[in-house]
Design brief:
Blueprint: E1 16-20, E2 29-34, H1 42-52, E3 56-62, E4 75-81, E5 86-87, H2 91-105, E6 108-114, E7 117-126, E8 129-135, E9 140-142, H3 146-156, E10 170-173, E11 177-182, H4 186-190, H5 196-206, E12 210-216, E13 221-228, E14 233-236, H6 240-252, E15 260-266, E16 274-281, E17 284-295
Parallel strand pairs: 2-3, 4-6, 11-12, 13-15
Antiparallel strand pairs: 1-2, 1-17, 3-4, 4-5, 6-7, 7-8, 8-17, 9-10, 10-11, 12-13, 13-14, 15-16, 16-17
Helix pairs in contact: 2-6, 3-5
Length: about 300
């Protein structure tokens, strides 16, 4: 663990460290996972997340039925804390948690009850490693206020002409809200130097978790970056919640067929390469996001 645990923790929990959406410790997005957070209050979990310093950490307690988790009863309550506050849903910490559960109880299905709703996950072994697929809550995509888009662009230092007109701004939700802005070029996406406080103020006003910046390489391959000032982090290296929201965005705008598999590359510009797989199914509005996780 990074440093010592906060003195106000009711207990000293065991913290596992993972990086999600990568096959190497050199990539992905780090997350702390506490498999038994029983006895920790909100203040203690926030303090632990702050001490760990990851964009989010995950805390597990028994599921709503109160049964003790086991290989047979795989239901958990899952909460996420950034170094600043609780977050309703976090995709990369969900994948990390799912892999940790798979290591403890074996591959299979788990029901994770989050503040955003039920998020089922399935863990399987592939090429000697565990891989997790989460299924999002029902997503939503909504129009944006042009004034809010203008403020976001100004905070980012982007010009209107640098946007891809084929991928218009939208707010997408699959557990938490994200403002999707698409760059017309890979070069523009690579240059990220924004006004942290100004973007933070806008995101708080709009109840956004990240701003998802996107560049489309091909019909099903995208490069993404996610500023995350509301979590006290300049940028996320891999954002599963935003990937799920983007899947809903792509379907809503007709960018991809109803039955599609998307590949999202994230973290490359910050030296933490990450790979997120997004699946859309015509008979289910929910979005599936798949990734690996490596224990640190």
């Amino acid at each position: 663990m990074k440093g010592s645990l906060p003195m106000n923790a009711a207990i000293t929990p065991d913290v596992l460290h993972y990086t999600a959406f990568a096959t190497s410790p050199a990539g992905g997005n780090g997350a702390g996972v506490v498999l038994d957070a029983t006895g920790l209050d909100d203040a203690a979990m926030t303090a632990i997340a702050a001490e760990l310093g990851y964009s989010e950490s995950a805390f597990l307690t028994p599921g709503p039925d109160g049964a003790t988790p086991s290989a047979a009863g795989r239901s958990f309550t899952l909460r996420f804390f950034s170094p600043k506050a609780e977050v309703d849903f976090c995709g990369h910490a969900t994948v990390a948690t799912a892999v940790a559960l798979g290591e403890q109880f074996g591959p299979g299905h788990f029901d994770l009850h989050t503040q955003a709703g039920l998020v089922p996950v399935d863990v399987r072994e592939e090429n000697g490693a565990l891989k997790a697929t989460l299924t999002s809550v029902p997503p939503q995509v909504s129009e944006t206020d042009p004034a809010d888009v203008a403020e976001a662009l100004s905070a980012l230092g982007w010009a209107d002409g640098e946007l891809d007109a084929a991928l218009p701004p939208r707010i997408a939700y699959a557990g938490v809200r994200h403002l999707v802005l698409a760059s017309a070029t890979r070069e523009r996406l690579a240059r990220l130097d924004y006004d942290f406080d100004r973007l933070l103020a806008l995101m708080r006003r709009l109840d956004l978790t990240t701003v998802q910046l996107v560049w489309r390489e091909s019909a099903t391959v995208f490069h993404v970056r996610d500023p995350f000032p509301v979590g006290g982090v300049v940028e996320d290296a891999a954002t599963g919640a935003a990937a799920a929201a983007f899947g809903a965005y792509a379907r809503e705008l007709g960018l991809v067929p109803p039955d599609a598999r998307l590949t999202l590359h994230q973290g490359h510009d910050m030296g933490r390469p990450s790979l997120l797989e997004v699946e859309l199914h015509p008979d289910d509005e929910r979005i599936r996001v798949t990734g690996t996780a490596v224990r640190l």
